[in-house]
Write a structure and sequence with these properties.
alpha/beta, Nucleotidyltransferase, domain 5, 3 domains, 6-stranded mixed beta sheet, two-stranded antiparallel ribbon, 14 helices, 40% helix, 12% strand
């Protein structure tokens, strides 16, 4: 009986070669079944059946038609099929989409993935006239787009750094180690990260106070006169006055670094129900969402430039750009849209 208990070793994704096709011809001439041939060659029986189907031709012997397998015939059919496989080049069919991507990339400074994801979500183009994010980056690599690798903000400067957690040098308040799990896993709305962004290393220059909501990626940017405790406290007080009774519902917690400008923000815990946590020293990755947004701000306000020269309107336009950028992690909603959805749940449900 041909059926054995053992199974041949799997050789997935390995195509038949000329030698194996010759072996199939010899074994088939011995009237062995596809299963028996597969056992001897260490191949799945369906692989042998498919090859026999490809390479079998009809021949006339006398007055009778017979089916005979030839390796050369199998190889020719295999090569013809290989030419047809793989995705087709769609660049010419996607000219309108490519133009749309290029315009948004240069005019609105959106990433290729944000543009592609938002177009797919809102069905701006038929699926047959679009390409995926990976294909767009492939087009950049081979020079098919007006966009070059040097134009991609992160591609030419991204570096990997090992996370280092050092012992506290300061004790400004509750450690991030005590922050609840529901804040860490972003399952609840209303938890923020805070930082300052400086321009020139000049104490007389203004700085930016940035706050990022961990769940929706909503960004708040405030221009403050200096990197001091008093300036930070005044900005937070203004924010609390603007929010009124809703402050503690929208700002349930704030996570800061150990900078001296945040030395007094724990006072919020005495005046509101907002909790304040402090990350470990030299561990910016513990406030990664805020740090990532600070990197977005640097596209418009590079290091070394004087922040005092930027108007409130200019700062607001940067904030608006951050909050209207479609995000893959939000399923290509913008932070503004995600933030409004959460506010609606709080105040109307």
């Amino acid at each position: 009986m041909e059926y054995l208990n053992d199974t041949p070793l799997s050789r997935k994704n390995k195509h038949l070669d000329a030698y194996e096709r010759g072996q199939i011809q010899v074994l088939r001439a011995q009237s062995l079944s596809a299963y028996a041939i597969g056992q001897q060659l260490g191949r799945a029986s369906n692989t042998i059946r498919n090859e026999l189907k490809r390479g079998t031709v009809t021949q006339r012997k006398g007055h009778k038609a017979v089916q005979v397998y030839y390796p050369d015939s199998g190889q020719l059919v295999y090569e013809a099929n290989r030419k047809k496989c793989g995705s087709k080049f769609k660049f010419l069919q996607c000219e309108a989409f490519i133009k749309h991507v290029t315009e948004l990339f240069f005019d609105k400074k959106q990433s290729l993935d944000a543009i592609c994801g938002a177009a797919r979500k809102h069905k701006s183009f038929p699926q047959s006239q679009m390409v995926c994010t990976k294909t767009l980056y492939n087009y950049v690599d081979v020079g098919l787009l007006k966009i070059a690798n040097i134009d991609l903000p992160l591609k030419v400067k991204r570096t990997t750094k090992t996370a280092r957690i050092r012992h506290h040098k300061k004790h400004l308040g509750t450690s991030i180690d005590e922050r609840p799990v529901h804040i860490n896993d972003r399952s609840e709305f209303g938890h923020w990260e805070i930082d300052t962004v400086i321009g020139k290393k000049d104490k007389s220059d203004a700085v930016l106070l940035t706050m990022t909501e961990r769940m929706t990626r909503k960004e708040i940017i405030r221009k403050i006169p200096s990197k001091t405790t008093q300036a930070v406290q005044a900005a937070l007080l203004n924010l609390a006055n603007e929010a009124g009774e809703c402050f503690s519902k929208v700002f349930k917690s704030i996570t800061a670094d150990n900078g001296s400008e945040f030395a007094d923000i724990s006072s919020l815990e005495r005046e509101t129900t907002t909790k304040v946590y402090f990350a470990h020293p030299y561990a910016s990755s513990e406030r990664g969402t805020n740090e990532r947004h600070n990197g977005l701000i640097r596209r418009f306000i590079p290091k070394g430039t004087c922040i005092g020269q930027y108007s409130i309107e200019a700062i607001s336009s940067v904030q608006n750009w951050c909050n209207t950028l479609p995000r893959k992690i939000l399923k290509y909603l913008t932070p503004d849209e995600a933030f409004e959805d959460q506010l609606r749940d709080i105040f109307y449900n």
